[in-house]
Amino acid sequence: xxxxxxxxxxxxxxxxxxxxxxxxxxxxxxxxxxxxxxxxxxxxxxxxxxxxxxxxxxxxxxxxxxxxxxxxxxxxxxxxxxxxxxxxxxxxxxxxxxxxxxxxxxxxxxxxxxxxxxxxxxxxxxxxxxxxxxxxxxxxxxxxxxxxxxxxxxxxxxxxxxxxxxxxxxxxxxxxxxxxxxxxxxxxxxxxxxxxxxxxxxxxxxxxxxxxxxxxxxxxxxxxxxxxxxxxxxxxxxxx
Length: 240
What we know:
Elements (H helix, E strand, L loop, with lengths): L12 H12 L3 H9 L3 H11 L7 E5 L5 H10 L4 E6 L2 H8 L11 E4 L12 E7 L8 H11 E12 L7 H20 L2 H12 L4 H10 L3 E8 L4 E7 L1
Parallel strand pairs: 1-2, 1-4, 2-3, 4-5
Antiparallel strand pairs: 5-7, 6-7
Helix pairs in contact: 3-4, 7-8
């Protein structure tokens, strides 16, 4: 693909990101495994633990992609719980629906939704999670407001996201990997523009401290974060 990667602030940003994820849905899981050396599974498990979900509770996995985190949440809440996976890419949702349900869990309900205008009532979920999707929102503050609205009082928000490391040698490695190697991998995957967007999306997204401040401004309390993978991955959590 020779399309220019989406740029935050462009009028058509949301539509471009939507189209991009539709295009790369078929290689998304494989590329994630390659780019993270399989560590993305571990990070999602940490996010599931941070959700504080208990058996029988309800969860929304926003920007769920191909459903990996939503399925982990389903295993956490068990057969009496309820998990919804929402995304604005129908091809991603189609792939998620084909994945097997964890033993002892009810099937995840995967459905199309706009993260900035969620089709759910106030106080609907015990936890809301979003993994590697927050930086793709056209309006982060509006997205956080929607997450706050649909959470039950006392419910947990968990955000798992790539962030920029500021210390060497990870800072140098980040630049080499994301600016040069990832776009090259994207070329082999058939969509260089999509994977050129990745480093741009990280650089234009708030760092861990600033994201925590935005969560606080949205009304969340007990905001905390953990840096993983040498500072490249940030795991934030908070309570409504």
